[in-house]
């Protein structure tokens, strides 16, 4: 009997612990070499863990367990023969095989309609038949999220029936609103715990201040209206506000390098490049992957880079390399309707710019009151690195470039 121990591999220099978020193969299944058996959730990304040998899989860790690097996850008995009905190894599948028709269902496997251990526990507690639940996991496996959704839907469906029955007994009209007193306790995801820890650390271990200004967006609106159609036709992507803000910040950051600096103990590290981390909201939390060397990129390149990162972030496919780095951050709360906020630093960076929603407001220009599309800007900064005068000057310079984009085009 030959048993291979599957242990948590070294994932990244700064990652010391991961969470086993989901088993992709059932306990006792036969697995092929390099076939993904589970998913790990790290501080920055979700990663698949492939089998190191072919054989019978035996669980050691459970879904939801926090595991240190090197911890035992599972064992594979390589002496077990491959069953006749076991799926072929992914490596043995010809690369030139014709793609399946999109509407054709995949072949059923052991995992199809079978709940993971965590999902089975939830369904058993609520008395829900697994055959009534549609699995969204690999090969149709019922995941923990599927089970929670099923119990939630079951509770919502049952509550109105009970309320209506009670109302009928009293001769009253059914009450369409069901009042619930149910509490639900859920363990925070590793990403959410990491976000919480880093935000508290940034708040407690930096001299953080925020300075505000406002920008008249009329010129940018005019620029986009004039050239949007030609821009899309040439580059296949829209000219958004984010690329313009990135270029404006990059131009000023190259001029005022203290705002682009990083504090390292008793030293300041100045960067001769600008990597701007873009805050992207996902279902699992906020991620801030950087777009690198923005000072050397064009507007279309920035828009395409941000779009690619957003797609990867929302599908959970960002790599650790894509998540690392960044010398400055931009967050756009305006897309959610935020009028004003004080963004928290993305350590070890020294500053972050907050964009907000654009509202038509009356302002005085040359002694006359006119209505203009205005946006509040907020720059949070670490006062240990950046002086008040520097922060205010930086924000004023960014405002001037936004209000007169020709200066941005000409680098003046």
Name the features.
Chloramphenicol Acetyltransferase; six-stranded mixed sheet; 3 domains; 9 helices; 412 residues; Dihydrolipoamide Transferase; alpha+beta
Protein described:
It contains nine helices and 18 strands. With 412 residues, it is α+β, with helices and mostly antiparallel strands. It folds into three domains: 1-82 and 90-98, OB fold (Dihydrolipoamide Acetyltransferase, E2P); 105-187, Dihydrolipoamide Transferase (Irregular); 191-410, Chloramphenicol acetyltransferase-like domain (Chloramphenicol Acetyltransferase, 2-Layer Sandwich). Helix 1 runs parallel beside helix 2 (144-169). The protein is elongated. The protein starts with a strand and ends with a helix.
Q: Summed up, what is this model?
A:
With 412 residues, the protein is of the alpha+beta class. The protein has three domains: 91 residues, Beta Barrel (OB fold (Dihydrolipoamide Acetyltransferase, E2P)), CATH 2.40.50.100; 83 residues, Dihydrolipoamide Transferase (Irregular); 220 residues, 2-Layer Sandwich (Chloramphenicol Acetyltransferase), CATH 3.30.559.10.
What structural class do helix, strand and pairing data support? alpha+beta
What does the overall shape look like? elongated
Strand order of the largest sheet: 9-18-17-16-12-15
Q: How much of the polypeptide forms β-strand, as a percent range?
A: 15-25%
Please tell me the overall pLDDT: 83
Low-confidence stretches: 91-107
What is the straight-line distance between the termini?
73 Å
CATH superfamily heading of the largest domain:
Chloramphenicol acetyltransferase-like domain
CATH architecture of the largest domain: 2-Layer Sandwich
Please give the share of residues in helix.
25-40%
What is the count of β-strands?
Answer: 18
């Amino acid at each position: 009997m030959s048993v291979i121990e599957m242990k948590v591999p070294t994932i990244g220099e700064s990652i010391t612990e991961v969470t086993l978020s989901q088993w992709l193969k059932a306990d006792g299944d036969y697995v092929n070499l390099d076939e993904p058996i589970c998913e790990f959730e790290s501080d920055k990304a979700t990663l698949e863990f492939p089998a190191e040998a072919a054989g019978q899989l035996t669980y050691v860790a459970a879904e939801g367990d926090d595991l240190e690097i090197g911890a035992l996850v599972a064992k594979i008995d390589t002496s077990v023969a491959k069953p006749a009905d076991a799926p072929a190894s992914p490596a043995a599948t010809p690369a030139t095989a014709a793609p399946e028709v999109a509407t054709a269902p995949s072949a059923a496997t052991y995992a199809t309609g079978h709940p993971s251990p965590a999902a089975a526990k939830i369904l058993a507690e609520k008395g829900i038949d697994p055959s009534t639940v549609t699995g969204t996991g690999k090969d149709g496996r019922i995941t923990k999220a599927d089970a929670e959704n099923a119990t939630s839907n079951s509770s919502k469906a049952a509550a109105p029936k009970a309320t209506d029955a009670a109302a009928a007994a009293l001769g009253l009209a059914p009450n369409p609103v069901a009042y619930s007193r149910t509490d639900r306790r859920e363990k925070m995801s590793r990403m959410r715990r990491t976000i919480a820890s880093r935000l508290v650390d940034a708040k407690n271990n930096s001299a953080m201040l925020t300075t505000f200004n406002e920008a008249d967006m009329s010129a940018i609106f005019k620029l986009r209206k004039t050239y949007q159609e030609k821009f899309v036709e040439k580059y296949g992507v829209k000219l958004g506000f984010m690329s313009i803000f990135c270029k404006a910040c990059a131009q000023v950051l190259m001029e005022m390098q203290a705002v682009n600096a990083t504090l390292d103990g008793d030293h300041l590290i100045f960067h001769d490049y600008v990597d701007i981390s873009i805050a992207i909201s996902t279902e699992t939390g906020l991620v801030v992957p950087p777009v690198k060397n923005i000072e050397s990129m064009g507007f279309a390149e920035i828009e395409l880079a941000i779009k690619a990162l957003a797609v990867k972030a929302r599908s959970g496919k960002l790599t650790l390399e894509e998540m690392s780095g960044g010398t400055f951050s931009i967050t756009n709360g305006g897309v959610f309707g935020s009028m004003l906020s004080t963004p928290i630093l993305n350590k070890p960076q020294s500053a972050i710019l907050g964009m907000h929603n654009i509202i038509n407001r009356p302002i005085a220009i040359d002694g006359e009151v006119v209505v203009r599309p205005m946006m509040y800007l907020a720059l949070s900064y670490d006062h240990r690195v950046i002086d008040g005068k520097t922060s205010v000057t930086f924000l004023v310079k960014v405002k001037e470039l936004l209000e007169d984009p020709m200066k941005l085009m000409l680098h003046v």
